[in-house]
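Hey, I'm writing a tutorial for new members on how sequence and structure tokens pair up, and I'd like a real worked example in the thread rather than a made-up one. If someone can provide the structure for the chain below, I'll link this post from the tutorial.
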Amino acid sequence: MDSLNITNGDIILEFIYLLAALLFVVGLKLLSSPESARRGNMWAGAGMIMAMIATMVLHRDGVGNTIKGGNLVIILGAIALGGVIGGVIARKIKMTAMPQLVSFFNATGGAASALVALIEFSNPDNQSILVTLLGLVIGSIAFSGSMIAYGKLNGNIKDIFSKWMTYINLLILAGVVLIVVLLLTSGMPAESKQILVYVLLAVSLVYGVSFVMPIGGADMPVVISLLNSFTGIAAAMAGFIYQNQAMILGGIFVGAAGTILTLLMCKAMNRSLINVIIGSFGGGGTAADREKGIVKEVSATDAAVMLNYSKKVVIVPGYGLAVAQAQHICSEMDELLEANGVEVKYAIHPVAGRMPGHMNVLLAEADVPYEKLVEMDEINPDMPKTDVVVVIGANDVVNPAALDDPSSPIYGMPIIMVHEAKNVIIMKRGMGKGYAAIENYLFYADNTRMLFGHAKDSLQKLVTEIKAL
């Protein structure tokens, strides 16, 4: 009878895990659109809660025992503490710090998976030594790499560019592989293996640091997505260790989604993933000097007139819009122009901002209708017919050097073709270079006018002027 109950409990548990996996799939599908993303989070979260409750109630160890009271209290306490901390962070985090938050979450996921692997390596019942070691390595790299990404995004850590970094990284990676092979094939005593596992942990952490340090600022969205996939793969490895279907499926979904997104962004930049990792794009490259031309400024009054009497306006948002927290006033300007018969769209570059989908999230916060957000490939053909393009805090994603300067580090990267519009207004605080540290000759083009000042203040002036017309 006990055996039958255990079997029935296992069947129910596996069925709930399958149902949770289906909810994960539904959640991922809904996350593909800002309009349904909130519901997607709810569905995926419901699946995870279902899997967690089922595990606590129905899971049995090798001898048929359920989770004991003391352990259950610890688990529930950890869930409650994590929930409170996560809730507070989610409410207080600024939109400009969202990329750092994503990096931090990646780090915590990697650290958890690495700790699971470290603990379970010495478990005599563990039959998945290779999986355990892979979980330790990938989780450690995800943790330390994500923390370095956090520091770089937050401005606390500078890029390290050196031709030797590639060779150093390859040497460290070779050391990681060698240690894994020794642990799998060597007949050394258990005590020696345990010491070697800690060495593997340390070397993997160092590799995570050295792997991210040389990557330039313009590639950070790709790196964040890649580290996110590492975290998912590490979680799947932890699931294999415990034979937990929910962890395996959840980790596979995250890992696959992160990998696909990484490859899509690399395609959007016309670069291979290997080139991103070792190329240091956006940090140390220099483009050929050429005649800059003359910077032509425009007043808020003249800019407002140009916008108000246009038929078609395109707004190109960038990280500067997020820094200025100007998305709401930008949306107000958009609504004023629409009320005056102007068609307004937003041109979204795949790698604009500091994380995947950063501009979509930013504009969704300001209740900009999703149908107004147009991807780069769709809006580029309309640029020659656009009366005015307003570039707010974007730089590298509109830089024509990607098209006509083979010496530029961004050469070959697809851009939003704002230079083809009839008029371009660029909002910047000064003539500083973008995150990729590359000169932008769009600023000197005949059809470009510069509106200098803080983006939020400049937009407020435009709104005031448009209302007065």
